[in-house]
Write a structure and sequence with these properties.
This protein is of the alpha+beta class. The protein folds into two domains: 3-134, 60s Ribosomal Protein L30, Chain: A, CATH 3.30.1330.90; 146-216, 2-Layer Sandwich (Alpha-Beta Plaits), CATH 3.30.70. The protein has helices at residues 3-7, 16-33, 47-55, 57-65, 78-85, 157-167, 198-205; strands at residues 37-45, 88-94, 103-110, 115-124, 127-133, 136-140, 146-152, 172-179, 185-192, 210-216.
Amino acid sequence: MNIFDILGPVMIGPSSSHTAGAVKLGYVARRLLGTEPIAAKIYLHGSFADTGRGHGTDRAVVAGILGMKEDDERIPFSYEIAAEKGFHFSMENIQLPGAHPNTVIMELTDAAGRRIEVQGSSIGGSRIMINKIDQAEVECTAEYPTLIIHNKDLPGCVAEVTSVLAAKKINIATMRLFRGKRGTQAVMIIEIDEAIEKEVIDKLEMIFGIMKVTYIPGM
């Protein structure tokens, strides 16, 4: 346990789980979409649904989707800012059997019709865990600089990705691989020790079988 687990993070709002964590979840969903979202469907589960609005969870999630961080003083006004930007969203309460009490599902859409669905939980002390990306079950904390790579499940993909990172002297802290059925789509989640340049992302995107590369700075 460290001092941030006891005192909590620097943030706007009354609760690190219901506010700071909710902002981070929205922000990560935005990064995973990779473009400017114009609409979102937001589903709150458990205590997010029961007490979240009183703690500002609803506004915090919207703030994150709009690109705000947890210490942004505009968080309480995220609804108004969304209206100014023409960003449309809906919010519902749902039940997700077996899910963490502080869980949200976010369906984001951009102007070109690209869409992503992200499920994540706020697990305390402003820490988060992304559980699903487009129904693929994953584990991503976004605590460190993180690469999220969608790829076809082909031999050699993982080796080529790690070769690109090694050539740039980028150290991998953790690496997790997720896939559904053999030979379909897979997801790599790679936590690294330092920030990376766009040049590295461009090289990763050129690898045969790589479908999408998302980079999330450490949060």
